Amino acid sequence: MSGRSSGPGPGPSAASSVERPALGSRHVLERTEFPSLLRSLRTAGYRTVGPTIRDGAIVYGEIRQESDLPIGWTDRQEAGRYRLEQRADAALFGYNVGPHSWKKYLFPSRERLFTAVRDGRSFVVQPEPVDPTPLAFLGVRACELAALGVSDRVFGKAGDPSYAERRTRTLRIAVQCGQAGATCFCVSMKTGPAVTGGHDLSLTEVLHEGRHYFLVEVGSESGARILDGVPLRPATEDEFRSAVASVGRAAASMGRTMDTNGLRDLLVLNPENPRWEIVARRCLSCTNCTMACPTCFCQTTEEVPDLSAEKSERWRRWDSCFNSGFTAVHGTSVRSTTQSRYRQWLTHKLGTWYDQFGESGCVGCGRCITWCPVGIDLTEEVAAVRTAPGDAPGGRVAP
Amino acid sequence: MGASARPRLGVFKFASCDGCQLTLLDCEDDLLAVAERVEIADFREASSAVLEGPFDLALVEGSITTPAELARIAEIRAQSKTLVTIGACATAGGIQALRNFGDVREFARVVYARPEFIQTLATSTPIRDHVPVDFELRGCPIDKGQLLEVISAFLGGRAPNVPTESVCIECKRRGHVCVVVAHGTPCLGPVTQSGCGAICPGFHRGCYGCFGPQDTPNTGALVPKLSELGMDPSAVMRVFRTFNALAPAFRAAGDAAEKESSP
Fold this sequence. Notes:
heterodimer, A: alpha+beta, 2 domains, 8-stranded mixed beta sheet, 4-stranded antiparallel beta sheet, B: alpha/beta, Rossmann fold, 5-stranded parallel beta sheet, 12 helices, globular
């Protein structure tokens, strides 16, 4: 691999890309030049992952060429329902978030942590190497950047070595949403749809008056380096305004809202609210909401000894507060009912997450609403707890 | 070999298709490791060399469907320190438990030229209905990895690590797209125990419930969804009455659907 030679050839725009774009600067990448961004990522040694269509949904997977992206597709989402639809245009990012989240790359669903091998009367621990390939996340939405920030703080506080190692090698190319899904509520959670930080590059796709281009904003030095060899030109005021308008349309069309005013106290003071019993009748305790959630981090570790008892592997897997085994102590589950599990999940996510990490655990992406097989909607549950005659004010936990 | 030092294993079959025993043979390389750690005293699917009991570990496949089986399971229990049942037949009566919802004499009359030669019980029942069982390994058929875990746990003197969570969590860990939400396909995954590796949803099919109910199965919440996706009450009844028809949660759901389907 010779770095520069695989970049775009000399052309009228190549000269302008020699000077490295400054942080915060705004540029235009024409749609036809988009492949040069993918080439540049490859040249820089990144494995690019991003949205791609598989099994009737937009999931995250390998992006080797632009045709791997869901060009001309969109998603229609509702509580418990997701369908792909063809768009009238050929947008590259004309959809909202799907069933996957970026956490699968930083916190894999199954991961061997180490192997212990018998050595006489003792044992030797063989650490598990982390794949050193740097990852470029392409198409990170504002709510997802927020979720990555939440995860950084959770895993950072826990001092998780494999998460940290993967995280430092990750480039984040954000895409500002030009539309909102029916289960989106990032405006309520103040996480989007505008990208305000945590990105290396931010793209806004504009299809306007027969033109198709990306407004590119530089968020970091690593992002700026990727733009070497990518044909850019400075954005005009009009182009910038079109991009802002597109994000404005997304903000104005949120499918859901959630009143977050005093939410932590509301939930903490309502452990006996009758709504928990009502939602438990519908809840399958199947874990889908927590698996789809970009910030849910619950995990279990297990020892897997081989039959010879000569070595034992330690694995960790995604776990969920909706599993009875998650709170099993001496063989008995502390949260034996679905009611107690749903209450725990929602109260932690929206309330006691503040006590633990100083912020909400919810970013308003709406995945838990869409991917609940029976369509339980946390925004509806929160509204119901607010209005139901519960234990608040004061509540039984007040003393 | 020092054979006497190794725990003695017996593998026994009752009313079943042999598929769960085959899972043990299917362990291939791991089977050699098993054979090094245990003495395979009685495993007729694998070898005609049969040794007498007692057994340290008995793996029992199949359900109880005849008077002779009733006597034989009591004898095996008496000879076995640890008895583990394997598969849907042994743990929930199997597909043959569908007889429990009909008239077995009528079936025998239709199927056999001389039904008077047939000695059978009116029901097919799981092993635990007749003798104490130390551990039940679910599945139709059982999963190879879980079987090795059970054997490994027995050898190590610890409890087996066999999660009782839903199939959904396996689907999500594998990155499968939910067939209910994205395709509108009816699926028993949310009420079914994991262990199979979410095979069917991985091939765009709904889960058929081969591993029986998960530990907190809310069939009452899933059935309206199945109906919404086009299943009428008789279809709902049939989907709960397959390999695990006698598992209590599936039995209740199947019975409720039957009531609804017969006006």
